[in-house]
Amino acid sequence: MFQTVVLPSGEVIKTRRRARKSSAGFDLTKLFIGAEGTLGIITEATLRLSPKLPTSVAVAQFPDVQNAVAAVTEVLRSALGSNIRMWVCLQRLPLTSSALECVELLDNNMMDAINHAGLSCPFPVKDSLFFKFQGSPSSIAETSRLVHGIVGSHGAELFQSARSFEEADELWNHRKVGFWSTFEWVNDPNTKIWTTDVCVPPSKLPQLVKETKEDMSKHGIISTILGHVGDGKKCLPLLHFPRPCMHPADTQLIP
Length: 255
Prior knowledge:
It is a single chain. Residues 85-96 and 245-251 have low confidence and may be disordered. This protein is an alpha+beta fold. The chain folds into two domains: 2-46, no CATH class; 55-239, 3-Layer(aba) Sandwich (Vanillyl-alcohol Oxidase, Chain A, domain 3), CATH 3.40.462. Strands 7-4-6-5-9 form a five-stranded antiparallel beta sheet, sandwiched between helices. A hairpin with a 5-residue loop joins strand 1 and strand 2 (12-15). It has helices at residues 28-35, 65-77, 108-117, 137-153, 165-176, 178-184, 205-218, and strands at residues 2-6, 12-15, 41-46, 55-62, 98-106, 127-135, 158-161, 192-199, 226-227, 233-240. The longest helix has 17 residues, at 137-153.
């Protein structure tokens, strides 16, 4: 989205579309919208519209998280990677006949949390990748076939592709309820979550995820992993349990 804005000084400026990753820094476009005219008057807005395309989802499960992330790295380096569009990215890239919309990592702890919370259909507790495809039915089938081949070469033990739009919605619901399922995982009403967000070059993803899991285990920290691995990003919700006698500033992570 682009905007033309007149500032109180009379200066006319134009905002630009958001960066590929914009979780840090000012988003001027949203800042002016949220200010409702107090920072400047929006005189013009340009929107990019995208057609709603048929969507499907596939899930691949692996014996360990490093194999799962290594599969993502290969997908990104393939011809499919040039078409990928992040789940969190509002700025659409030019549409192609077939696109891998996004790739999400849910580790074994996250899958266990989702099963425990009962917010989605049960699934084996294994490190999992969720792929979302968009395009014509034939192009979705071809993209799914190519992804199936890549994940298979990295030891995927299961690959399930949705057979209908309803099944695709049910599979993707695992991704939607991941964060809230983490709260329910430990059956403690005092549970709180510190969310962390790390972004690295996709080639470093296997090392990042592997070492993070090892660090969490070593220090006895309960956590799940929910990663937008299609753009080299992972979210790590850390569970902590404040003691009643603790001062808020002294709250520690406790297994």
